[in-house]
Design a protein that fits this description.
Transposase IS200-like domain-containing protein, transposase activity, 311 residues, DNA binding, Transposase_17, Transposase_17_sf, 7 strands, alpha+beta, single chain
Length: 311
């Protein structure tokens, strides 16, 4: 069966939700392994032209929300600086292959491949084993910035809540909200430009506070899948500082945030569809599915087949 096409946009900054699962049974990714995987994400994000917006490293998979930058935004001096900062003076920059290096450092596929391959080498050496660790290629979807992105980030940060690992999302240190809270966003790993103009905030601390409020209010809603944040925990957090704002009776429709090809407002989904419909093997106009519980949010399933291509 042909591989399903991956949707990639190279002509503008684009946010992707990446998911990759292990091929091994059980929960092979232990706490020390989570630390190592997070360290890889941090190190490689200094090399690649990517903004990390969110993540959750779990026992058998990881989520990564990242904004990739297009090649035409990147100068040769940017490439050289990143290269030298990452490799130091010991590894000479191949200036005769500048175009090739630039293409790679702006590639979602190369970025995630580096993360996964480096982790596999680490894990196999640690356990004196050989073979695959990850279960095939990673899944990715294009995400519209703004309210769609914030809803997605909440879904990602609530993974450890749904799994019953912690009672408060920031208590899980291998997630973006945990990283914000426990480290103060050490080394500036996480970008907090969510594109949500409604918040009208420039103060980083206030943006994180509002995001934390959104995650709590969202996580308190019983979606019928997994555990929720206990009401007494939410009430306690409210009393400590954030005001109650308009709360959508948001019910997780997990498949939209994991199986879609594109997710966002209807106009955004239509725009991307027009760019990628040649990959879908169908001339029919695609009908977009509204995501229940979130007004104005639509999803386009990735139903076509073909090879990995870029637009």
């Amino acid at each position: 069966m042909p591989r399903i096409a991956r949707f990639i946009r190279n002509d503008r900054q684009t946010v992707y939700h990446v998911i990759s699962r292990t091929a091994l049974p059980g929960l092979p990714i232990k706490d020390t392994d989570k630390d190592y995987l997070l360290g890889l994400i941090k190190r490689l994000s200094r090399l690649y032209f990517v903004d990390v917006l969110g993540f959750a490293v779990m026992g058998n998979h990881f989520h990564l929300v990242a904004r990739m930058h297009p090649e035409d935004e990147i100068s040769n001096s940017d490439i050289i600086k990143r290269w030298q900062d990452y490799y130091g003076d010991k590894v000479e920059m191949p200036t005769d292959r500048m175009a090739e290096v630039k293409k790679r450092l702006c590639s979602l596929g190369a970025y995630v491949k580096d993360i996964k391959q480096n982790f596999t080498r680490y894990y196999n050496k640690k356990h004196r084993r050989k073979g695959f660790f990850w279960g095939g290629r990673f899944k990715s979807m294009i995400v519209q910035e703004g309210s769609t992105l914030v809803n997605l980030l909440a879904y990602v940060d609530l993974n450890p809540i749904r799994a019953g690992i912690v009672k408060k999302p920031e208590n899980y240190r291998w997630s973006s909200l945990g990283y914000h809270t426990q480290t103060g966003n050490k080394d500036g790993l996480l970008d907090i430009d969510f594109g949500l103009k409604e918040w009208n905030e420039l103060d980083p601390k206030e943006i994180v506070r509002k995001y934390r409020q959104f995650v709590y209010e969202t996580g308190a809603v019983d979606a019928g899948k997994g555990k929720t944040i206990e009401k007494k925990v939410v009430e306690k957090a409210r009393k400590k500082g954030y005001k109650i704002s308009r709360v959508e009776r948001f019910r997780y429709r997990c498949r939209y945030f994991t199986d879609s090809g594109v997710i966002g407002g209807k106009d955004f989904v239509q725009e991307v569809f027009d760019q990628v419909k040649h990959l879908l093997g169908s001339k029919d106009e695609r009908k977009f599915t509204p995501v229940g519980g979130v007004e104005g949010l639509y999803s386009m399933k990735r139903l076509g087949a073909g090879c990995d291509r870029q637009i």
